[in-house]
Write a structure and sequence with these properties.
- By secondary structure, this protein is α+β, with helices and mostly antiparallel strands.
- The protein has 18 helices and 34 strands.
- Strands 11-19-22-29-26-25-23-24 form an eight-stranded mixed sheet, with helices on both faces. Strands 1, 2, 3, 7 and 8 form a five-stranded antiparallel sheet that branches.
- A hairpin with a 3-residue loop joins β5 and β6.
- α1 packs across α2, α6 packs across α14 and α11 packs across α12.
- The radius of gyration is 30 Å and the shape is globular.
């Protein structure tokens, strides 16, 4: 058993121990639902007897009960049972009963006993005796509300989470990482630095404040510079498109529930209309019905109408139309289109998470049209872009290859050649075995490479993606004239390096803990004239910086100098210039550098050169010496 399998077994086993402990404390009337292992531990979902709930004050008691159970050194026994036996066994457990009833008729049903007094419906595997878990280190850390089977119309459950690791040292290290992650929370830092905000009138759609928008634009500028060097041209397309486009692309059939729809108009009501049998969810047979009134003169909408529109969740179909606007020759390929248009994707409210999961965002989205013979070279170039970009942010990354799924579209031979090209590229780049292969996990339209970046505290985030697509060119009838005069279909490469800019910004806020490199900082230089008579010199310096494209803010108010410095310090500006008589007389600046280092009597031209150098090289470190 490898380490990953071992972790899964003992974490899943501890979930059973958690359930047994809760039942022993809160009584036999506890309804227990499911309890899977997760990345850093496990959780279990419960419905407790009326009037009872688990709070933070109860965590220690539950943990103590779990330790007590483990010390009993009970055997774990697996039994295969019939459907009838399983239903009898769990006749007082509504969630287990539903799970059993939903199983296929020929499904093998197994249950696991922990001792003689706790049994759970489970495929396993598990430990053979509780003593195997005595050395495990675990800690209950939180509870949350969950819906049975993720359906907000079903039962509300209380979910109890625990961390679980093989040793106390590993648990201690994880807890330290969690505390560090809380300090780095992008929502907390984003508020402190006045980067972005949210409002309930647009859930999951960030407002970018002046400082945050400066950083956003710096990211876009850097991306555009990289793409120009690699032969990309930028396009922009309508944000709302007629449903005909989404029918052709396949989004109407496969992605409709995640799209924001603007339905067409059927007409207007002549009189008040009473609508009976209104339900919130057609799939819920027990949903209560209600009645509503539509007032005379109201618009009647119908998304089946031909004039129905939808906000675009992806840029791909627009790029296809841009390519298709004229006849293409093999001599033009590859054609590389970059696009930063606003996208909208509907998410469940419970899944929204600051900038990391939003409903409105932009991507550094690119679509490249190539001949099959160009796939290998083009993807190698894209990986070189990823190398350059991620190195700039000081993060490492690893690659994952996802191969042909069972429901693939297109010619299997083309798939085989494409996968072979991708493997060869990854073998050359990372060495055989230097990347993960997810067999059968590719998109139905082509294999893909995902790029997982690692931040300053070791967390991984999926950002970049490179996807081959044989389906959209077919759907849109894309062609090019080959060298022999025949008409051929191009292959499309979907590519993003940042991925969602919103998500990427959330990640780098946490990675840098708000202390951004000079080139990325929302405001790069703060200017503090010591007294009002120094404002003229300060304005001269501000103008010089602005002319060089350096983001600068100055405080000309007649207030204490230390108050001004503190304001810019709290915003974490890399440089704060303090200007007085001496600086004005000698045409110099005195600099307070983020991190509490100072440089005095720096010639203005020298300071401008330092700023230019950091903006040009996109270096991670702030220059704090004149050497």
């Amino acid at each position: 058993m490898d380490k990953e399998q071992y972790l899964a077994v003992y974490r899943h086993s501890l979930a059973h121990v958690l359930a047994k402990a809760v039942i022993e404390i809160y009584g036999k009337d506890v309804q227990y639902a499911i309890g899977p292992q997760i990345e850093d531990g496990a959780y279990y979902d419960f419905v407790l007897p009326a009037g009872k709930s688990i709070t933070e004050a109860d965590f220690t008691a539950i943990e103590n009960k779990m330790h007590e159970i483990l010390k009993r050194k009970e055997d774990w026994t697996c039994r295969e049972v019939s459907r009838a036996e399983a239903l009898e066994l769990f006749k007082n457990q509504k969630f287990k009963t539903e799970l059993i009833e939903d199983l296929p008729e020929d499904e093998k049903i197994t249950v696991y006993y922990t001792g003689d007094d706790y049994v759970d419906l489970c495929r396993g595997p598990h430990v053979s005796n509780s003593q195997e878990l005595l050395s495990a280190a675990f800690k209950i850390h939180s509870t949350s509300m969950a819906y049975w089977r993720g359906d907000e119309k079903r039962d509300r459950l209380q979910r109890v989470y625990l961390y679980a690791f093989p040793s106390k040292d590993e648990l201690k290290a994880h807890l330290k990482m969690i505390e560090e992650a809380k300090e780095r929370d992008h929502r907390k830092i984003g508020t402190q630095l006045e980067l972005f905000m949210f409002n309930e009138t647009a859930p999951g759609m960030p407002y970018w404040l002046p400082r945050g928008w400066q950083m956003y634009q710096a990211l876009m500028k850097y991306s555009r510079q990289i793409q120009r060097k690699h032969g990309y041209t930028e396009i922009a397309a309508p944000l709302i498109n007629n449903k005909r486009l989404w029918l052709v692309s396949g989004h109407w059939a496969h992605y409709l529930n995640n799209m924001f729809i603007v339905p067409g108009v059927d007409g207007y009501t002549k009189a008040d209309v009473d609508v009976d049998e209104l339900v919130a969810d057609l799939k819920d047979p027990d949903a209560e019905t209600s009645k509503t009134k539509i007032e005379a003169g109201s618009v009647v909408y119908n998304r089946e109408n031909p004039d129905t529109m939808a906000a675009k969740p992806m840029n791909c179909p627009n790029a296809m139309l841009t390519y298709k606007r004229k006849t293409r020759s093999y001599k033009e390929l590859p054609i590389r289109y970059g696009e930063y248009d606003v996208l909208h994707r509907k998410e469940k409210s419970g899944q929204l998470n600051g900038l990391l999961r939003v409903q409105e965002f932009r991507q550094d989205d690119c679509h490249t049209f190539v001949m099959e013979s160009q796939i290998k070279d083009e993807i190698a170039d894209i990986i070189s872009i990823a190398d350059e970009v991620y190195k700039t942010f000081g993060v490492s990354y690893r690659a994952e290859l996802s191969t042909r799924p069972d429901d693939f579209m297109g010619d299997i031979e083309v798939w085989n050649r494409a996968e072979a090209d991708l493997r060869e590229i990854l073998d050359e780049k990372y060495g055989k075995g230097g990347y993960e292969v997810n067999e059968g996990d590719g998109a139905f339209y082509g294999p893909k490479i995902d790029l997982q970046i690692k931040d300053a505290i070791g967390r991984e985030w999926q950002c970049g993606t490179i996807q081959l697509d044989f389906q959209l060119p077919h759907n849109f009838g894309l062609t090019y004239t080959a060298e022999d005069g025949s008409s051929q279909m191009p292959v499309v490469i979907h590519r993003a390096i940042y991925g969602s800019l919103e998500r990427f910004i959330g990640i780098i806020i946490e990675n840098f803990k708000g202390n951004f490199p000079f080139w990325l900082s929302p405001m790069q230089v703060g200017i503090v004239p010591i007294r009002p008579e120094h404002n003229a010199y300060a304005k001269k310096i501000e103008d010089l910086l602005v002319d060089r494209g350096i983001r600068v803010e100055a405080d000309y108010n007649d207030i204490n100098m230390k108050t001004k410095i503190k304001t810019f310090h709290n915003y974490r500006d890399p440089y704060i210039l303090v200007l007085g008589d001496k600086e004005a007389a000698e045409n110099t600046v005195s600099i307070n550098i983020r991190g509490n280092k100072k440089l005095n009597d720096v010639p203005v031209e020298k300071f401008l050169e330092l700023c230019d150098r950091m903006n040009k090289t996109h270096c991670l470190d702030i220059i704090d010496t004149l050497d």
